[in-house]
Amino acid sequence: MQERNAHVRPRMHYLCMDMLQLEFPDAHFQVVLDKGMLDALLTDEKEPTLVRGERMFSEISRVLQLGGRYLCVSLAQAHVLKAALGHFSREGWMVRIHQVSGSEAVSPERQFTLPIFIYVMTKFKKVPGSALCVLEICTAEWDRPVRMESAERLAEAVRERQQYALLRSQLNKHSSAGNISLDLCNAATGKPRYTLHVVDSPGGKLSHTKHFAIFIIPQGRETEWLFGTEEGRKQLAVSAGFQRLVTVALHRDQCYEGMEGIQTELSGKVMELAPPGLLPQQQVPFLSVGGDIGVRAIQHHSTSALSGEYVIEDVKGDDACYFRRLVFLSNRNVIQSEARLLPQAPPKGHKKQKKKKAAAAVAVCDSTRPLLVSASHAVDKSYLCCAHHRAMVAGLALLKSLELFPEAPIHVLVIGLGGGSLPLFIHNYFSQCHVEAVEIDPTMLEVAMRWFDFSLGNRLKVHVADGLDYVTRVAAEELCCYDAIMFDVDSKDSALGMSCPPPTFVEKPFLQKVRAILKPEGIFILNLVCRDSQLRGSVLAVLEEVFPVLYAWRTEEEVNEILFCQLHPKCRLTPVEILERARVLEKALRLPGQAWDSTYTLADMLQAMRIV
């Protein structure tokens, strides 16, 4: 090497030396460059190997001046990174890790799969007793470094980049990579900014020009079946006709500068997810519904002692309608409650004021401030947004004496309040019905009354209590007092395979208490959300032990399954009888002068009902 470079690099010296015992004096260099030697030395995590690593670090520290830098090129295997971070952070050095970009001249198929990193360790004077240590990562050439709070978090960030590189390699080499999702985070805050799902169309006739496209899901619509489920996204990809479609969901705590701004921000990153064979300069279309990114405005953000952090948000849905939603941030992809908002007719003489407000509402659509739509809109109490709520109300058609509706003096118990739309609808359309709702979280009652126009009255009461305790107490009184009992309560434990209701609500001893407070010809209606087929089977088995008559309602677009339970076999109806009862009930509920949602047909809802 010395001879080869004697004329080209005459000031460069090549020396043979033991890196664990360097022959240079202290503070001799400003830079130490290590091209893979650390990786070669730390082949495992055995004690002798780690001791050699520590000796190497000590020698590097000795020969570097204060302010000098140790530059180490590494694949950042977990044990190598752990050793380096552990030593230099303890010594009070500044640690920054750069990910090296691949060459644009090399096709993705030929690039090295694992990313390469450079550790930049800057020597500072160690201050006894000081816990200050600067840890940073820089994942792109022109990005600003991101500060990390701990060595563990920095190592985790490196691991995420390695996993992403493996994922990218898989996507670049295979035209069908399965169900893949990933989050792109805000570089400044580290919070998720975009959630991407990669969807490859199944085999079939596809256009030779439609290889790859990006679909921006409008804000607030990411929970819809078409965008929020694997089956829905597959259908979307087939309808779009592209070989690979990447759907992009926008997060509620981020600010976006319209479709053009999102396209500029994502163009470079999404190309890393392109299918094999895509030409480097090929234009990739950005698609959306109606060509915009939708509207979402946070009206209220707070925390409940029982339910945790939650938001009230207004979103613009399809057909330009606005909807108000309650979302628990512990399960941010699930809408807990939803209500449609309708514009209120302005008082006479206030037409100019209305126009000013409308203009203002348009002006803030893309901002993070609350929409002014709230002041000019009211909750539509005639509209049930949730399909499972519509099914639960339609299930009241199974009650006897339909000819007496809606004046029949029935008593309904609803466990779980949320925004209150279900008990409020029953109260408003069954004019002699007495509704009692039980809600464990007093904050939710406040939310329902403030944001969803829920109100109490002589026929509508709310008990702030645990539903388990309330049913147990009423059962102890030995009174069969309810014509209908509805469970619409979520589970706070996301680790379970059943998110609604909590498992204790469907245990046999408790269901027997539910049976005890139900009138002989009454109906028990349960909202079940269970993705574990074995657990679902055990729930149905217990229900059948307690309730001889069991119907189930579910559609392809719904994760909710509504179960209708009755006490006596004589209550069992044929599908034809169920549909006829639904028509009779709907005719009774459509009262003159009272609004009725024209899209809500009880018989159509119960078409999906089947006997278990």
UniProtKB/TrEMBL annotation:
Gene Ontology terms for molecular function: protein-lysine N-methyltransferase activity
GO biological process: methylation
Superkingdom, taxonomy of origin: Eukaryota
InterPro entries, per the entry: Lys/N-term_MeTrsfase_sf, SAM-dependent_MTases_sf
Gene3D superfamilies referenced in this protein's UniProt entry, alphabetically: Vaccinia Virus protein VP39
UniProt keyword terms in alphabetical order: Methyltransferase, Multifunctional enzyme, Transferase
GO cellular component terms, semicolon-separated: cytosol; mitochondrion; nucleus
Family: Belongs to the methyltransferase superfamily.
Name recorded for this polypeptide: eEF1A lysine and N-terminal methyltransferase
Species of the source: Sphenodon punctatus (Tuatara)
